[in-house]
Amino acid sequence: MAASGSGPRVLLLNGPNLNLLGSRDPHQYGSVTLAEVERRVQALGAELGAGVECAQSNHEGELVEHVHRARHLDGVVFNPGAFAHYSIALRDAIDAVEVPCVEVHISNVYAREEFRHTSVTAPVSEGYIAGCGPAGYELGLRAVLTRIGQRRPR
Ligand code: DQA
């Protein structure tokens, strides 16, 4: 769904398997669907004067293209899913667009398998939220809005 209004515009982007939220491993990810997550983040955006566009893809190249399109927006809240752990292409895309990106993981990846302890995308992101459940996306929106116009040098 497209953002509207004259305030900041943020892309809420979700990677592989996150379309299955609500039914996928509720112990890790809760029982809220992706549609509900998107609705909540858009409602918060409306409250805070920001427009929120939402996208999800299971394909690395499509996610890269969504990140490229975010060049024309003000910020990104991104759960790259498993790609966070190894996609150099996504890391480079985030680095290239120079738009603040806050990485979100629903689960506490550090309490899980060791391969989830590495994020190749986090070092090029402005912030990182993990283990807060689906509410992490709303925290991510609040965080990215504070970063707009003040990207830290890396
Ligand atoms: C996840 C954590 C990843 O390790 C996993 O591959 C996902 C979801 C999370 O939101 O907790 O797909 O990004």
From TrEMBL:
EC number: 4.2.1.10
InterPro entries linked: DHquinase_II (IPR001874), DHquinase_II_CS (IPR018509), DHquinase_II_sf (IPR036441)
Family matches, as CDD domains: DHQase_II
Gene Ontology terms, MF aspect: 3-dehydroquinate dehydratase activity
Active site as annotated: 29, 105
Keyword Hydrolase appears in the UniProt entry: no
Top EC category: lyase
GO terms classed as biological process: amino acid biosynthetic process; aromatic amino acid family biosynthetic process; chorismate biosynthetic process; quinate catabolic process
Keywords: Amino-acid biosynthesis, Aromatic amino acid biosynthesis, Lyase
Any matching Pfam family: DHquinase_II
Superkingdom of the organism of origin: Bacteria
Site (Transition state stabilizer) residue list: 24
Gene3D superfamilies per record: Dehydroquinase, class II
Catalytic reactions on record: 3-dehydroquinate = 3-dehydroshikimate + H2O
Residues reported in the UniProt entry to bind substrate: 79, 85, 92, 106-107, 116
Pathway annotation: Metabolic intermediate biosynthesis; chorismate biosynthesis; chorismate from D-erythrose 4-phosphate and phosphoenolpyruvate: step 3/7
Quaternary context: Homododecamer.
Role: Catalyzes a trans-dehydration via an enolate intermediate.
Homology family: Belongs to the type-II 3-dehydroquinase family.
Protein name as it appears in the record: 3-dehydroquinate dehydratase
Gene field: aroQ
